[in-house]
Write a structure and sequence with these properties.
The protein is of the alpha/beta class and about 290 residues long. It has twelve helices and ten strands.
Length: about 290
């Protein structure tokens, strides 16, 4: 690993604050990863840390990665690339977006130097296929490839650092949002058998369970997709109303893709009496994807 890059990552990380809120008879402590850094925040900080060290160590000049139009990973990668002297290229799902004005996430990434290649949804589904990856390596030989959402073995290694020793000592139930499965996999790997890890999915379907099973053999975890509002980046009036009410009461910012669904799910399970008296919730950031409708 390239220790200089790791040191740079650690230097930009601020002390991570905690904020405890009381909802009914449950103390919900939120670990504010969103406050690590203004741009490389949340779980993305931990996912990118060792990937950028590897890219530097192997002598790459740029980083190439994948994402949708609202991808927190795309935004964080663009900023980190400029900060550490890399070029960046985003393979973006949806060729029709090329003719549309950029949304807030893509605008942010582009302002920090990321170039885009917009491809069809059909092509995008090939992003993990060997032939597709090999063609990208041929076309962009100076670019280090980071998977969608940043999820690979190095990302999981980084995400094992999300929980501190005191977190593991003080809490038995730990909750986080789930997109590609990397963050929760790292959290699971850092936990002991007596911990329960609950992942609130931003997407519909049980495929994420299979994804996480590729990265861990532990059994003390569960993926919950009851609060995904129909799928990735989909919202409902109930979700928007919840976020507005939550922020007004607790002054903790959320967004509609991940953290809003996470907290809405937790509150509903508390209402059902299905939660212990205290839990730790990982706020995974991603606030640059926050919609103007909130």
């Amino acid at each position: 690993m390239h220790l200089e890059t790791e040191k740079q990552f650690n230097e930009i990380a601020q002390s991570i604050p905690y904020q405890t809120i009381q909802y009914k008879d449950v103390a919900i402590t939120i670990k504010r990863l969103d406050q690590i850094h203004p741009a490389i925040s949340g779980n993305k900080f931990f996912k990118l840390k060792y990937n950028f060290s590897q890219a530097k160590n192997l002598g790459y000049k740029g980083v190439l990665t994948f994402g949708g139009a609202f991808s927190n990973h795309i935004a964080a990668t663009a900023f980190a690339a400029q900060l550490f002297g890399f070029k960046s290229l985003g393979i973006i799902r949806g060729e029709e977006l090329q003719s549309h004005p950029y949304n807030a996430t893509l605008t942010f990434a582009h302002e920090y130097g990321m170039q885009f290649s917009f491809i069809s949804r059909e092509q995008y589904r090939q992003k993990n296929q060997v032939d597709f990856i090999e063609q990208l390596k041929t076309n962009y030989p100076d670019y280090y490839l980071i998977p969608e959402g940043g999820t690979n073995d190095l990302a999981i290694l980084g995400c094992q650092e999300i929980l501190s020793p005191s977190d593991l000592q003080d809490y038995q139930t730990i909750c986080c949002a789930v997109g590609t499965g990397g963050t929760i996999s790292g959290i699971i790997e850092s936990c002991q058998p007596h911990h329960q890890v609950l992942g609130f999915s931003a997407l519909k379907g049980d495929f994420l369970t299979r994804e996480v099973q590729q990265f861990t053999s532990k059994k003390n975890w569960k993926i919950i997709d009851d609060y995904c509002c129909g799928g990735y980046a989909k919202v409902t009036a109930e979700l928007i109303n919840f976020i507005r009410s939550f922020e007004q009461k607790y002054q903790i910012p959320l967004e509609q893709i991940y953290t809003g669904k996470l907290l809405m799910g937790i509150f509903d399970l508390v209402d059902q009496g299905k939660f212990p008296s205290k839990v730790l919730v990982i706020h995974s950031g991603g606030l640059q994807g926050r919609s103007s409708i909130i």
